[in-house]
Amino acid sequence: MDETAGRGDYGGALSLDSGLAALRSSPEFRGPVESVDGHDCNDHFAHVYETPEEKFEAAVPFVRHGIERGDRVLYVVDESTEADVRAALRAGGVDVDEATAAGALSFHTVQETYLRNETFDVDEMIDFYGDTVAAATEAYEGLRIVAEMTWIAADDTPVEAVMEYEQRINDLFAETDSLAICQYDRERFDPEVVRNVVESHPHLIYDGAACHNVYYTPPEEFFGDDAPARENDRMLRTLRDRTEAKAELADHERFLRELYEVTASQDRTFEEKLRALFELGCERFDLDMGALNRIEPGEDRLVVEHAGGEHSHFEVGSELPLSETYCKAAADIETAVDVCDPEEEGFDDVLVYEEFGVDGYLGTYVPVDGGADRTLAFVPDGTCEGPFSERDRAYLELMGQWVGCELNRRRREQFISDCYEVTSDPALGFEEKLHRLLDLARERMDLEAAGLTHLPEWDGAFRTEYAIGYGEGDGAVDASDGLWTDPGDGCYCRQAIAADGPVGMADVRGTDWADDEIHREHGLSCYLGTKVTNGSTPYGTLWVGSGEPRDRPFSETERTFLELIGQWVSYELERRDHGDAQRELYEVTADPDRSFDEKLDALFDLGREQFGLEVGGLAAVDREADRIEIERVGGDHGAYEAGLSFPLSETFCASAVEADGQVCVLDPAEGEDARRVYDEFGFETYLGTVLGVEGDRDRVFFFMSEDAREAAFSDAERTFLDLMGQWIEYEIERRRHETDLEETIERLEQSNDRLKQFAYAASHDLQEPLRMVSSYLQLLEDQYRDELDETAEEYIDFAVDGADRMRAMVDDLLAYSRVEQADGEFEPVDCEAVLDRVTDDLQVRIEETDADVVVDSLPRVRGDAEQLEQLFSNLVANAVKYNESDRPRVEVTAERRGDYCELAVSDNGIGIDPEKADRIFEVFKRLHHDDEYTGTGIGLSLCQEIVDNHGGDVSVDSEPGEGSTFTVTLPAAGDRDA
To answer: Mean pLDDT: which of 350-364, 751-765, 963-977 is highest?
Structure first.
């Protein structure tokens, strides 16, 4: 066969099952697909379709499956065109060109097949397909045929001839590796023809379903004089079978519904549900009593735990040898068993038959994790009517499965409840809780010993931290007894601590474990252990065991239970150590007698111990320059020390900086192993976090080790690193702020001293000389007025004006000084009253300039009335002064914003360049010469000082030629200040 034809993973002879598999696995076919299930069949489908889409939904997967399997596919085209079929196959994923080129797929017309001589001849067609099958199976796995049968509707071929052909072709396909689908367009055939098609094919495809045909008529019944009578018999049998099937289905549904109603009830207890199940089973199986029995095969014991119904020899609490009951058979094969004739079935010598006369039984085995198994059984109180059906046994197993699940659930819930009661008891210490949990585990698994071991060094021995039932008697063994064990590789605790889950051996005899000293010297023959960790570091194992082998393996539930206890122990160990570490962290950071460097060294020691890493460090980072500078190192590594500086990208810290948070490295990946810290210093494990320091370079706080670490860092460890890092970050910022504050205070004190000195000099040394200059110049002018010419008069005026301006400047400086030295005792101030006084004082200037001053409703604020009057006097005066409009306009408004009031003074004056706006609040900074606008350059500085003294803010919003708005924020007067 040409390999290009393709082969799929489909073995075996070509049969009807192959066709069903093609449909069942196809996304095109809507399903369902009914299995053969022992019905009469052959390798021949009739596909009755009504639309073109339905025609191809079976044909396409049938062809595709055949080509993949390695079959030869012959497609007879009639109603469709070959182009239509090719397009449908391509859409279904078939490589039509490759398949046809290889000979695996071919297309034929009706004239080339059914009407070869322009008429249909049954014998000729049987020979044709016989030859075709023989030729195909020489090179291929089998032959598949898809044949469109529409030609029958237009041909004169008698229906009887076609049906004879269909029957005979069934025989041909049944004896060869061949499979066919004959397609019939329901819309093109008379109902009688469709009926005949249905009756002559054991399997039909219709409306997206592949089904066994209950109306199929075997050939010997389809033809002949007695065909009507046989058809009547078949129809009557079909009706009866259908009715019986429906009745069985209804009975099945009723039983399942009643079973569900019992088991799903939220209002019944387990015992009440059991009684209801017994009633349901007795009615269903026609037996008199149901019972749930605890069985102990090793002790050959059966105890009736629960019972329903009546029996003269059985009641709750009855105890019998298991071997003397029918339940022994159910326990042996661990499934359902029925007994209808004890003597014939080999039970004639058991107690329940010989003495109790129980001659019937239906029971099933119920396994229970970690406890005694059960049997659920029903028996008659007299003669058994039997036999029991497969459905009866299935029903009983369903009931037994629910009982088993419920018993296991109750045991799990009880165990978890007991564990929670122990672990949540605040009156118990860790050791007391551990003792009780180990006791629970021993009881739960019916073992004699349990314990907690610790492995201080990975390759060292295990130390028994605590154990019960181990050694002599049932006394507790703790670490003070100095019990060390060293199990070999792959045995006991050595395997448990290396495994991801619990490790158990129910019977070590005959295994490698039997050679271990734990078995030879301590007699431990049964063991189940799980790893215990402290954070992410392996700590030891939690285990249960016994000197006697166990008769059954450890179940998944038992393993889960031990793992749950182990997780609690791990959590407690980590919590205990984490709590100790946090207390030590607090003691270090809160110690007033240690310097920052001493505290940092103590944190390095604490972190190295907590994380199991050998070096700690603190480094400053320059992101832009890609540099890192090691500021301090904790731990001895030799070459890695404080003062080192190298590219940030050559350190693991680069990952933390890139993530801007915490990063850990356990196994340097490709690229990371080229970093300098790995290549030169040999560090393989890293845990670090970025510290964002305000006003300074960022830092990285980290720990590293040359040893690789297998387990990931736990949440508690990562949290502890963050706690240490937060303190370091806070301490660096605090120290920097303290330094900045000290420098600022020193500068302020110096400035205040100079200002006070200046104020004193101005008030005492400058005022008097200036008054003298002005006074004597005026005297000189008055006394020598007749002798002075116009130039002398002008010079005197200049000198007097200069002295006056100097006096005004000194007055402003004195006012500025008084504001800065004010004691800050503020009272509620009515801003409207303040503005009234301001406008009164400026009335002359307002009238001279014809200014329009508009004052809105203003609030009360807390402040100094005199200073606020000075503030608004300067602002309103400037608004009028720096104004070239025909009529200056000044508007004062206010708005409450939380605990502050925002007052705005707006004008239509000359405005201010925004780039120079900050300068106007500086002392002696002026934007205009005296020949433009006179002034001292202190007025707005004084405003700034007054606002600052009140804890507020002042700003300006202005554009040249657009006027200005000065906004002042002052503390509002509260309701209690009213």
So the answer is: 350-364
The per-residue pLDDT for range 417-468, each reduced to its tens digit, is 888 899 889 899 889 999 999 999 998 888 999 999 999 888 889 999 899 9
Q: Is the pLDDT of residue 549 over 90?
A: yes
Cβ neighbours for 50, distance < 8 A, ≥ 6 positions apart: 185, 186, 187, 207
The domains spanning 265-414 and 430-554 adopt the same CATH topology: yes
Average pLDDT, the chain: 83
For the segment 65-81, the average pLDDT, to the nearest whole number, is 90
Q: Report strand pairing: 72-77 vs 105-109.
A: parallel
Give me the phi and psi of 706, to 5 degrees please: -80, -20
* Mean per-residue pLDDT, 671-694: 79
Average pLDDT on 145-157 reads 81
Write out the two tokens for 77: 């085209």
Q: How far is Cα 62 from Cα 142, in angstroms, rounded to an integer? A: 13
Which class in CATH covers the domain with range 3-217? alpha beta
How far is the CA of 158 from the CAs of 75, 155, 193, 302, 787, in angstroms? 24, 9, 10, 74, 159
Give me the residue spans of the domains in the chain: 3-217, 224-256, 265-414, 430-554, 591-713, 822-977
Question: How far, in Å, CA of 158 to CA of 182, rounded?
Answer: 18
Task: Give the span between the Cα atoms of 862 and 900, in whole angstroms.
Answer: 10
CA atoms within 13 A on the CB side of 773: 17
Give CA separation, 694 vs 733, 737, 958, in Å.
Answer: 6, 9, 34
The pLDDT tens digits of the residues spanning 387-426 come to 888 889 999 999 999 999 999 888 888 888 888 899 889 8
Please state the rounded mean pLDDT for residues 494-502.
91
**CATH architecture, domain 822-977:** 2-Layer Sandwich (3.30)
β-strand pairing of 537-546 with 526-534: antiparallel
Please state, in angstroms and rounded to a whole number, the distance separating the CA atoms of residues 345 and 359. Answer: 11
Q: Which CATH number fits domain 430-554: 1.20.1250.20, 1.10.3300.10, 3.30.450.40, 3.40.50.150?
A: 3.30.450.40
Tell me: the pLDDT tens digits for 774-816?
777 777 777 777 777 878 777 777 777 777 667 666 666 666 6
Residue with more model confidence, 241 or 546: 546
Least Cα distance to 876 among 902, 920, 842, 911 occurs for: 842
pLDDT class of 822 with cuts at 50, 70, 90: low
Please name the residues in contact with 823: beta carbons below 8 A apart, sequence gap of 6 or more: none
CA distances from 753 to 245, 720, 817, 922, 938 (A): 112, 49, 11, 19, 20
Exposed / middle / buried, residue 646 (Cβ in 10 Å: 0-12, 13-18, 19+): middle
Q: How far apart are CA 807 and CA 289, in angstroms?
A: 123
The phi and psi torsions of 53 (rounded to 5 degrees) equal: -65, -40
Res 702: pLDDT: 94
In 156-309, the DSSP E strands lie at: 178-185, 203-206, 209-212, 289-296, 301-309
What does the pLDDT average to over 20-31?
68
3-state secondary structure of 8: coil
Give how far the C-alpha of residue 747 lies from the chain's centroid of Cα atoms, to the nearest Å. 56
pLDDT of residue 116: 82
Q: How far apart are CA 295 and CA 375, in angstroms?
A: 7
Full strand arrangement of the beta sheet holding 615-622: 645-647, 627-634, 615-622, 698-705, 685-691, 663-665
CATH class of 591-713: alpha beta
Chain CA centroid to CA 700, Å:
30
Asked if 113 and 147 touch (Cβ cutoff 8 Å), the reply is yes
pTM of the model: 0.48
> What does the pLDDT average to over 185-193?
84
The SS3 assignment for 548 reads coil
Instruction: Classify domain 265-414 by CATH architecture.
Output: 2-Layer Sandwich (3.30)
